[in-house]
Amino acid sequence: MSGHRAAHDLAKAPLQLTDPGDAGIIAVDRFGGHCEVVTAAAETRTLADPTGAGLLATIRLRTDGGDLTVTAANGLNVAANTTAVFNAVGEQLFMTSVETATAFRWEILVNTGSVALS
Q1: pLDDT tens digits, residue range 55-103?
Q2: What is the DSSP string of 17-51?
Q3: Which residue from 111, 75, 94 is spatially nearest to 32, judged by alpha carbons?
């Protein structure tokens, strides 16, 4: 990929991340990864820790068959909240990865809807 085509190539890149299903792990393995989640009942997902700083990722509740609880071990914000609960179609978190003193963690940039954090 050459520098003058970078934006074009990124726009055509496959960004969709597969929903791993109940109790699965969402692993963001590409810049701009987007995971559309479908629930059939109250379900959980674990958001894997990022592997470096500067990644962007989105998790969105596509179909609401029950609340979705997403857990991130190293936190989702500066308040050190580790859990996000999605309870309505269209709710989403847009995040970037940041470096801490000991690891990388996710930092929410946009919380669309009313995703509850704890």
Answers
A1: 999 999 999 999 999 999 999 999 999 999 999 999 999 999 999 999 9
A2: EPP--TTEEE---STTEEEEEE-SSSEEEEEPPPS
A3: 94
